Amino acid sequence: MAKKLKVYQTSIGFFDLAVAAPSMKAAAEAWGADPDIFKRGFAKPTEDPKVVEATMAAPGVVLRRPVGSHGKFTEKAVLPKAPEGVQRAPQGRGQRADTSKHVDMKSDEKAKRNAAAALERERKREALDRAKAEARSERAKKQRERMIAKANAAFARARSRHESTTNSIRRRREELDKEEANESQRWEREQQAHSDTLKEAGE
């Protein structure tokens, strides 16, 4: 059975991140972060219905939204544009922004790869668990079959002994009945001979 997914949320850089993963460790790997991010209080499970709905629709995929906002988590979130009238940053800062964006894209790609790897490991673990469970079930089945076969063999031997004993008793009973009949006939002859003798003596 597949492990139930939970939704985890954190903030890294300019974005809030959320992912549906089987464990905190898997979520941290998907974000490209250290697993102790949860122990340090920088990440947590969430049950926000909107976040849960978005992440469960794409398990293992890291979703983002601008940090501190309350918008919808998406896979390709972007930072909001600066309001009109705000002075543009000098070229040097613009270059740093482009570099930051490039780094953020690389981090996002790494997070996706980590998420995919985490899910693949989870699938392999579940497949191994299923294989072990099937092996245990097969061993138990064979053990039951051996027990049944052993019990049936013992019962067959017992039935054979019973039939043999019953037949022996029947044969002895027939012999006894025959002996009894012969003895009855002999005794009748003895009685008749005695009666005949008494009659002759009386005459």
In short:
The protein is α+β, with helices and mostly antiparallel strands.
Structure description:
The protein has 203 residues and is an alpha+beta fold. The protein has a domain at 6-78 and 104-142. It contains 3 helices and 4 strands, in the order E-E-H-E-H-E-H. It has helices spanning 24-31, 49-56, 91-202, and strands at residues 6-12, 15-21, 43-45, 63-66. The protein has a 4-stranded antiparallel β-sheet with strand order 3-1-2-4. A hairpin with a 2-residue loop joins strand 1 (6-12) and strand 2. It is rod-shaped and about 150 Å long.
Keywords:
alpha+beta; 203 residues; rod-shaped; 3 helices; 4 strands; single chain
What secondary-structure arrangement, pairings included, does this model have?
Blueprint: E1 6-12, E2 15-21, H1 24-31, E3 43-45, H2 49-56, E4 63-66, H3 91-202
Helix pairs in contact: 1-3
**Which range best describes the helical content: under 10%, 10-25%, 25-40%, 40-55%, 55-70% or over 70%?**
55-70%
Report strand order across the widest sheet. 3-1-2-4
Strand segment count: 4
Helix and strand content put the structural class at alpha+beta
**What general form does the structure show?**
rod-shaped
What is the CA-CA span between the terminal residues?
111 Å
Mean pLDDT over the residues: 81
Instruction: Give the SSE string.
Output: EEHEHEH
Q: What's the alpha carbon Rg, rounded to whole Å?
A: 46 Å
